[in-house]
């Protein structure tokens, strides 16, 4: 099953983006390295920072990561080929070409599924990390974190690991998770307020009775 290409969303053709970098080995190898390491590395650093410095916000981000990843993994049971497996469409597997592929070799006895391109967990995680840093940190430097999703989207496209559609679906899933979390948080807050109000009523009734008797 092949996802629609960028043209169907009014976005640039993914193959044209890749063609723009194939003549620059240092840029290609950098993109391959970023794809292989940074999505996990940056997320790990952000979660560790939140756990150590902003414990109250850690649970929110952790739940977002778990819920978003779980939904992405469920959808990935539907096999979807990444662009790099479609040479007839003008794509090249640049990671394989430079010996940097994370696919095909077992890691801890697990071989990554190459037909799980939709949706892009890379895109979902980079947006989660950026939103977490921008919303929790203070000071103008936090906005530099916005570069992470920008670079990640560029990387997943030029390396032919994802179509635009893979990232768009990932962002829709993430937004849905945020909305559900907000709804659940609001419901819990109303429940807590109702519980506190119920606990205060007997005391208030005793005070009114004492005033009346006085």
Low-pLDDT residue spans: none
Cα end-to-end separation: 81 Å
Helix content: 55-70%
Structural class by SSE content = mainly alpha
Compute the number of helices. Answer: 7
Q: What form results from the Cα inertia axes?
A: elongated
> How large is the radius of gyration?
24 Å
Structure characterization notes:
The chain is built from seven helices and no strands. The chain has 214 residues and is mainly alpha-helical. It starts with 13 loop residues before the first helix and ends with a helix. The mean pLDDT is 87.
Topology, element by element:
Elements: H1 14-19, H2 25-53, H3 55-75, H4 94-97, H5 121-136, H6 147-158, H7 164-213
Using brief descriptors, characterize the structure shown:
7 helices, mainly alpha, 214 residues
Short note summarizing the structure:
By secondary structure, the protein is an all-alpha fold.
């Amino acid at each position: 099953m092949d996802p629609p290409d960028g043209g169907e969303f009014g976005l640039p053709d993914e193959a044209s983006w890749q063609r723009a970098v194939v003549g620059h080995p240092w840029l290609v190898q950098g993109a391959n390295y970023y794809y292989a390491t940074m999505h996990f590395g940056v997320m790990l650093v952000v979660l560790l920072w939140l756990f150590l410095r902003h414990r109250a916000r850690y649970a929110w981000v952790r739940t977002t990561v778990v819920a978003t990843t779980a939904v992405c993994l469920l959808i990935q049971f539907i096999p979807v080929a990444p662009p790099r497996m479609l040479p007839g469409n003008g794509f090249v597997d640049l990671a394989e070409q430079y010996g940097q592929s994370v696919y095909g070799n077992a890691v801890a006895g697990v071989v990554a599924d190459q037909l799980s391109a939709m949706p892009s967990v890379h895109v979902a995680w980079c947006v989660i990390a950026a939103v977490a840093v921008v919303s929790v940190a203070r000071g103008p430097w936090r906005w530099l974190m916005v570069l992470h999703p920008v670079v990640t989207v560029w990387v997943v496209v030029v390396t032919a690991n994802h179509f635009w559609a893979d990232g768009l679906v990932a962002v829709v899933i993430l937004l849905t998770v945020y909305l559900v979390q907000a709804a659940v948080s609001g419901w819990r807050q109303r429940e807590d307020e109702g519980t506190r109000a119920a606990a205060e009523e007997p005391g208030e009734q005793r005070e009114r009775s004492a005033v009346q008797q006085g």
